[in-house]
């Protein structure tokens, strides 16, 4: 029965990674940049949700929307101020700028909201479910997270396939110049990608802190790196890949902790990543790139 | 002498000038202790930046785990140095041996990590270097090393289980890292190491190997079609950089009485990467100057207390935007042109006179 | 010309393919490809766009591993060899979309071609031993000598990326020659050149063949160049050889005319 | 090419400015000697970065003590806080800055590894250090100038094992500790030895790192092995997550912790019902009537309940104050090295005792270790109750 318990917590942890990874992978697919500040956008959004529920006692649904809205605006502003001027610069320059933005957001939160962790109240209305006479207990947060993950995945797939903007995104990610020639507004499309990725970050933040209730200025950092790993694991740029990568990463993390070593679980997660990339150099679902000679 | 050679000698000159200025100021008692405390770290990070530039700038592979090699060197160096405390009386000699062994250990780690890593490309390569960095940090958190009369003991659980005799000395204590290190690093030693690093890497770049490494960066397929063993040269750059990072690690560890595995995490790797990118890819002098400035800057901002890291991050973003944005480039070029014109006007008569004399 | 005919009897095959083929996914790009290149000849590979000519070069240099068939170099099977080993065994090439080492100088580009003739190691390079100076001196002289083929000595210190288009194409040939090949594959060497440049190139290709005594295979769309200097021509269409022979035979071959005219019809 | 040159030039200029700015022993303005001299205390702790919480709360506590003392009108204390980012390199830089500032003595560092690095420098320079919360024994080992206000790690580990055994709280014990944290690992290591002596059976030992937020495995393992008590030698932030997840898993053993757990009730928004029955050995509890005044001031200034870090910071300043006034050390004219010897003499003397909010009549061994009685408290109805 422990196995099932671990499976559930692995999948729910992985679902959070997956939603964060979606933000990374969408931005990467379209802007070809690693947005290292993504984890910190999550943190800022979660603070907004926190103050919405505690200080202004707004209902959970409004708090989630507040977080998404805040993240969306933040994402678009960051894109406009810090990344857009660097369009055409080397990817490394953009990477370093993203790191600068990450520093900025963390230190801003530290000054604005202090270093003391806040206990994030769970915004999940359901109670836990007890199965097999109490041997398997699934928390409401875990159920919500998994459901949210599936919902986001389906919604995003439809959006990318059917919606005009979604199609534009695919076009820009395939070939930015060609898309521009076809009359697609590349800047607008990239900004919208940031908006959607960041809105997902808002959801991810609320779910993350509902499940693991500590909120501090560094809350987003490690989940950010893990999700980035998940995105690469699944094949960066691929939406189903981010999903698969996230969930697998969560499961590997929990299972290696349970059955191999709690001390070395992070090392094992990264070791699995390395092995996977050696077998499939562009991740699980990544497109094979054949260089034109 | 060609331009490359001139460039190299300017770099040596710059380092020596820095050394001399510091020594003169120090002799006059004009240097604050805070600045003196940063001298060795500055040199250490310069070595880190130069060696990372070999990977990122010269070889063109993004590495996010350079600090891992620093940590391998650092902890190896600490163990070696502790073992030699009694047998090698001369501190500089002990330091030199430790640096050498630490560099070799990091180089070996570089070989083991390079073999899988360098088969990948681009961002996938970057994430795997990050992964290796995290793995090494994670493992170092579980390493326990002690020294007693019977020799070296090591284990992965706790210091108590090493079975040392009562006089045993703990060298590495898991997450607590190495404590009670006999400090051996000095500014002079650090400057010598910077010069050695510059010497090795600059000469390497301007040799057959360096040419091959840059050719592979510029166009891998053409390099292969010209008969270059791509893996060999990528490895050469990666392992050389790892070895020098290891030496920097030894220098760093032996400059403090304690060093913890956590120090060499992702953030330190990123810090060094920032130096490299800001200094200019492939530009070793840029790396050196950017490192020195960015190490001193946060210390200068100390009076702003909490706001200093915020200011630091804003400066970082602004500098990146200015140096990489096309419009900013244009504005700057125009400003430079105006200043140049102005000086030309002022200096024109002088030059004319010179010409006339001829 | 007489000289060449005299040589013809001594000619032995240097590079041969046997039923060579490659598939990309389900698509067959090249199939049943059989040619035989003799040791000192100039051969041409022509065909409409997308016929698979460059793919053949990529197979011959092992940039792509063939799905079927064999490549024999000097009579030996090359199945286990990769791009680097093919080059060292004597196959050098240029690229359709120029692939120079843009940030290196012209001289350095040639020195990369000479790389495997320069024998000193990491240690010699770092410590500047006598070996380093000796071999670098040799490399410099040899590079200048090779550059003189195209009168490019004056450009030696320019960055390869900043050269004009024609000079870049010529530099690629020089670099390939540096690797001391027995077979030189030229992928559209005259692309983007004006008629007088093309004529000059034609002379130089002959000169290279005669001085270095090597086989040259070229892909080219400029029919006057191909018909003028090639002794053997193979025509490729949809990945298959549809005709082989001397320029005269090719010009008279109805299949070739159809392939080209058919293409024109489609375009119209 | 041109742009890189210009950047290089700009940076070189900045560098020169830096050299000049850092150069010169600028006399601190406090040394004017026109007014009454102040007691210049340096403070080193992590004010930014992942450990910012500990440094900032300690500093906030210390500031309250400084205000109180300055309000009394006698000695005026000037506290100069320096950020070490929980990093040895930055800590040594901070220390040297304080040296340039001519600090009389130093309160710090807040965390063990930086403290250890600074202590070496301070030992060589003869600068007195009183650390509020660096609890590793390595900090004081072999250094006569470094004193601790907090319990040392081994001390806490063995005291916990002893307390659990003596009060027969449990025989089967599980331990969850942070193996990337010196504090946690330090307590764990001595706890294991002491537990064996006391006849406690450790049925499950699991670890986590600073970045862990899912504790399912650790809790489940303790549960499956039938642990009646889970020992948590960790800080309160991860502990709050363990409590929530254990509650979700309907596992309710006794949770037993050390001073790091204090602060649990102070987390903004924490559901205190989760902490019901949690026991901890701590020198400080915010419900102690003696500390009521401090707690009120702290809450007013910072809007949150003080943790033991804040209390340690507060007591550190008072301990220093008492040492300086008790021994009548002339901080205005003596060098810091001379003050150091006087402070060592004072702290190690048998009749030097400090009544603080983290302990009544605290005294110090010559080794630098504090001796005070730990209080065992249990959380009932959201407040600490002494046991």
Can you say what the CATH homologous superfamily of the largest domain in chain D is? Response regulator
- Please state the average pLDDT score of chain D: 85
In sequence order, what are the helices and strands of chain D, one letter per element?
HEHEHEHEEHEHEHEHEEHHHEEEEE
Assembly level: heterotetramer
Task: Please count the beta strands of chain D (DSSP E, at least 2 residues each).
Answer: 15
Provide the β-strand percentage band of chain D: 15-25%
CATH topology of the largest domain in chain C: Rossmann fold
Query: Class of the largest domain in chain C, according to the CATH hierarchy?
Result: Alpha Beta
Rg of chain D, alpha carbons: 22 Å
How would you concisely characterize the structure shown here?
The complex is a heterotetramer of chains A (293), B (358), C (268) and D (387). With 358 residues, chain B is mainly alpha-helical.
Description of the molecule:
- The complex is a heterotetramer of chains A (293), B (358), C (268) and D (387).
- With 293 residues, chain A is mainly α.
- Chain A is 72% helix and 3% strand.
- Chain A has helices spanning 2-31, 38-54, 60-83, 91-113, 140-162, 164-174, 176-181, 186-211, 221-234, 239-259, 265-279; strands at 118-119, 129-131, 136-138, 214-215.
- Chain A has a two-stranded antiparallel ribbon with strand order 1-4.
- In chain A, a hairpin with a 4-residue loop joins β2 and β3 (136-138).
- Chain B is built from 13 helices and 3 strands; from the N terminus they run αααααβββαααααααα.
- In chain B, α2 (33-58) runs antiparallel to α11 and α10 crosses α11.
- Chain D has 387 residues and is of the alpha/beta class.
- Chain D folds into 2 domains: 38-151 and 290-373, Response regulator (Rossmann fold, 3-Layer(aba) Sandwich); 154-282, Response regulator (Rossmann fold), CATH 3.40.50.2300.
- Chain D is built from 11 helices and 15 strands.
- Chain D has helices at residues 2-22, 52-71, 88-100, 112-125, 153-166, 182-197, 216-224, 236-248, 292-302, 308-326, 336-348; strands at residues 39-45, 77-83, 105-108, 129-131, 146-148, 172-178, 201-208, 229-232, 254-257, 279-282, 354-356, 359-364, 370-371, 375-380, 383-386.
- Chain D is globular.
- The N and C termini of chain D lie far apart (73 Å).
- Chains in contact: A-B, A-C, A-D, B-C, B-D.
Write the layout of secondary structure elements.
The complex is a heterotetramer of chains A (293), B (358), C (268) and D (387).
Chain B: H1 3-27, H2 33-58, H3 66-84, H4 91-117, H5 122-140, E1 144-148, E2 151-155, E3 169-173, H6 187-205, H7 208-218, H8 220-225, H9 230-253, H10 266-279, H11 284-300, H12 307-324, H13 326-357
Helix pairs in contact in B: 1-6, 2-6, 2-9, 2-10, 2-11, 3-4, 3-5, 3-9, 4-9, 6-9, 7-9, 10-11
Chain C: H1 2-8, E1 13-24, E2 27-33, E3 36-38, E4 42-46, H2 53-60, E5 68-73, E6 76-77, H3 83-88, E7 91-93, H4 106-113, H5 122-127, H6 130-147, H7 165-178, E8 183-187, H8 195-212, E9 215-219, H9 223-229, E10 232-237, E11 240-245, H10 247-252, H11 254-267
Parallel strand pairs in C: 4-9, 4-10, 7-8, 8-9
Antiparallel strand pairs in C: 1-2, 1-3, 1-5, 5-6, 10-11
Chain D: H1 2-22, E1 39-45, H2 52-71, E2 77-83, H3 88-100, E3 105-108, H4 112-125, E4 129-131, E5 146-148, H5 153-166, E6 172-178, H6 182-197, E7 201-208, H7 216-224, E8 229-232, H8 236-248, E9 254-257, E10 279-282, H9 292-302, H10 308-326, H11 336-348, E11 354-356, E12 359-364, E13 370-371, E14 375-380, E15 383-386
């Amino acid at each position: 029965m422990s196995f099932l318990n671990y499976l559930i917590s692995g999948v729910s942890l992985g679902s959070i990674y997956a939603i964060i990874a979606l933000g990374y992978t969408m931005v990467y697919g379209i802007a070809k940049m690693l947005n290292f500040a993504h984890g910190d956008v999550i943190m800022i959004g979660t603070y907004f949700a926190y103050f919405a529920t505690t200080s202004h006692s707004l209902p959970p649904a409004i708090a989630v929307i507040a977080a998404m809205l805040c993240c969306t605006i933040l994402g678009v502003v960051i894109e406009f101020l810090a990344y857009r001027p660097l369009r055409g610069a080397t990817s490394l320059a953009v990477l370093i700028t993203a790191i600068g933005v990450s520093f900025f957001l963390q230190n801003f939160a530290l000054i604005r909201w202090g270093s003391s962790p806040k206990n994030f109240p769970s915004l999940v209305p359901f109670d836990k479910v007890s199965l097999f006479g109490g041997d398997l207990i699934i928390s409401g947060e875990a159920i919500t997270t998994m459901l949210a993950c599936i919902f986001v995945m389906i919604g995003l797939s439809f959006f990318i396939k059917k919606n005009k903007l979604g199609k534009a995104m695919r076009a820009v990610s395939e070939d930015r110049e060609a898309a521009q020639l076809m009359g697609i507004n590349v800047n607008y499309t990239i900004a919208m990608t940031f908006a959607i990725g960041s809105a997902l970050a808002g959801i991810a933040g609320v779910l993350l802190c509902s499940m693991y209730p500590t909120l501090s200025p560094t809350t987003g950092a490690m989940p950010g790196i893990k999700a980035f790993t998940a995105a690469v694991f699944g094949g960066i740029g691929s939406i189903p890949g981010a999903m698969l990568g996230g969930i697998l990463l969560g499961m590997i993390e929990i299972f290696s902790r349970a059955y191999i070593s709690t001390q070395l679980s992070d090392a094992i997660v990264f070791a699995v990543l390395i092995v996977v990339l050696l077998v499939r150099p562009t991740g699980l679902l990544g497109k094979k790139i054949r260089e034109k000679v | 002498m060609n331009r490359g050679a001139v460039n190299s000698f300017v770099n040596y000159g710059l380092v020596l000038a820095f050394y001399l200025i510091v020594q003169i100021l120090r002799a006059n008692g004009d240097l604050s202790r805070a600045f003196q405390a940063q001298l060795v770290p500055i040199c250490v990070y310069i070595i880190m930046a130069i060696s990372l530039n070999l990977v990122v700038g010269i070889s063109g592979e993004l590495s996010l785990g350079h600090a891992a090699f620093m940590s391998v060197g650092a902890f190896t160096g600490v163990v070696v140095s502790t073992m030699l405390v009694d047998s090698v009386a001369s501190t500089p000699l002990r330091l030199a041996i430790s640096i050498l062994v630490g560099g070799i250990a990091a180089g070996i780690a570089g070989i083991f990590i390079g073999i899988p890593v360098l088969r990948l490309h681009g961002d996938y390569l970057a994430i795997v270097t990050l992964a290796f960095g995290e793995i090494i940090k994670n493992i170092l958190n579980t390493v326990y090393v002690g020294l007693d009369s019977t020799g070296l003991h090591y284990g992965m659980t706790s210091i108590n289980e090493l079975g040392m005799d009562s006089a045993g000395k703990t060298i590495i204590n898991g997450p607590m890292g190495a404590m009670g290190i006999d400090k051996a690093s000095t500014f002079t030693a650090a400057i010598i190491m910077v010069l050695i690093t510059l010497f090795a890497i600059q000469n390497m770049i301007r040799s057959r190997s360096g040419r091959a490494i840059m050719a592979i960066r510029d166009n891998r397929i053409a390099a292969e079609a010209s008969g270059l063993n791509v893996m060999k040269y990528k490895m050469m750059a990666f392992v050389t950089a790892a070895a020098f990072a290891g030496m920097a690690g030894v220098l760093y560890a032996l400059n403090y009485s304690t060093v913890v595995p956590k120090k060499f995490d992702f953030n330190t790797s990123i810090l060094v990467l920032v130096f490299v990118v800001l200094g200019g890819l492939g530009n070793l002098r840029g790396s050196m100057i950017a490192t020195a400035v960015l190490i001193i800057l946060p210390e200068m901002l100390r009076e702003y207390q909490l706001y200093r890291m915020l200011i630091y991050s804003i400066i970082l973003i602004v500098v990146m935007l200015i140096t990489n944005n096309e419009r900013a480039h244009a504005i700057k070029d125009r400003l430079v042109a105006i200043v140049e014109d102005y000086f030309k006007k002022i200096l024109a008569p002088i030059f004319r006179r010179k010409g006339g004399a001829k | 010309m007489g000289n060449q005919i005299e040589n013809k009897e001594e000619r032995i095959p240097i590079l041969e393919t046997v039923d060579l083929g490659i598939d990309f996914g389900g698509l067959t790009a090249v199939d049943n490809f059989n040619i035989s290149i003799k040791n000192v000849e100039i051969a041409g590979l022509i065909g409409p766009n997308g016929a698979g000519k460059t793919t053949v070069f990529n197979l011959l240099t092992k940039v792509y591993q063939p799905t079927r068939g064999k490549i024999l170099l000097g009579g030996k099977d090359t199945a286990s060899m990769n791009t680097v080993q093919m080059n060292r065994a004597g196959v050098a090439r240029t690229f359709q979309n120029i692939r120079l080492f843009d940030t290196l100088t012209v001289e350095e580009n040639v020195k990369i071609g000479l790389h495997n003739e320069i024998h000193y190691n990491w240690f010699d390079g770092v410590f500047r031993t006598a070996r380093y100076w000796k071999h670098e001196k040799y490399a410099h002289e040899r590079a200048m000598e090779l550059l003189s083929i195209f009168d490019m000595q004056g450009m030696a210190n320019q960055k390869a990326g900043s050269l004009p288009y024609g000079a870049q194409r010529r530099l690629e040939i020089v670099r390939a020659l540096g690797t001391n090949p027995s077979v030189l594959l030229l992928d559209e060497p005259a692309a983007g050149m004006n008629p007088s440049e093309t004529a000059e190139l034609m002379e130089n290709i002959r000169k290279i063949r005669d001085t270095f005594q090597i086989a040259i295979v070229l892909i080219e769309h400029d029919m006057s160049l191909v018909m003028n200097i090639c002794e053997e021509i193979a025509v490729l269409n949809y990945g298959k050889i549809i005709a082989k022979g001397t320029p005269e035979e090719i010009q008279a071959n109805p299949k070739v005319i159809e392939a080209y005219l058919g293409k024109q019809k489609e375009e119209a | 090419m041109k742009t890189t040159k210009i950047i290089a030039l700009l940076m070189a200029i900045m560098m020169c400015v830096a050299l000049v700015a850092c150069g010169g022993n600028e006399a601190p303005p406090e040394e004017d000697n026109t007014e009454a001299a102040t007691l210049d205390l340096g403070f080193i702790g992590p004010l930014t970065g992942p450990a910012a919480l500990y440094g900032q709360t300690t500093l906030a506590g210390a500031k309250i003590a400084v205000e109180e003392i300055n309000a009394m009108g006698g000695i005026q204390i000037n506290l100069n806080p320096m950020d070490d980012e929980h990093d040895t390199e930055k800590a040594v830089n901070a220390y040297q800055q304080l040296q340039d500032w001519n600090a009389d003595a130093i309160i710090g560092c807040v965390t063990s590894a930086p403290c250890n690095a600074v202590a070496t420098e301070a030992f060589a320079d003869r600068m007195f250090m009183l650390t509020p919360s660096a609890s590793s024994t390595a900090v004081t080992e072999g250094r006569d100038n470094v004193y601790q206000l907090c319990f040392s790690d081994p001390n806490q580990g063995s005291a916990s094992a002893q307390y659990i055994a003596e009060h027969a709280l449990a025989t089967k014990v599980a331990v969850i500790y942070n193996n990337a944290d010196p504090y946690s690992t330090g307590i764990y290591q001595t706890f294991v030895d002491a537990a064996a002596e006391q006849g406690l059976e450790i049925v499950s030992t699991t670890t986590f790192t600073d970045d862990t937020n899912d504790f399912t495995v650790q809790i489940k393992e303790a549960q499956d092995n039938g642990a009646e008590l889970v020992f948590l030698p960790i800080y309160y932030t991860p502990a709050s997550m363990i409590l929530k997840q254990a509650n979700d898993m309907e596992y309710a053993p006794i949770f037993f912790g050390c001073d790091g757990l204090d602060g649990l009730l102070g987390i903004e928004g924490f559901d205190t019902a989760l902490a019901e029955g949690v026991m901890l050995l701590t020198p400080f509890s915010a419900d102690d009537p003696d500390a009521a005044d401090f707690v009120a001031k702290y809450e007013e200034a910072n809007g949150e309940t003080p943790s033991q870090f804040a209390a340690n910071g507060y007591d550190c300043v008072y301990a220093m104050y008492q040492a300086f006034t008790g021994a009548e050390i002339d901080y205005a004219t003596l060098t810091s090295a001379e003050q150091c010897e006087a402070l060592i003499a004072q702290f190690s003397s048998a009749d030097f005792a400090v009544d603080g909010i983290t302990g009544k009549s605290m005294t110090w061994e010559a080794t630098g270790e504090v001796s005070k009685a730990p209080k065992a408290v249990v959380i009932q109805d959201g407040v600490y109750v002494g046991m």
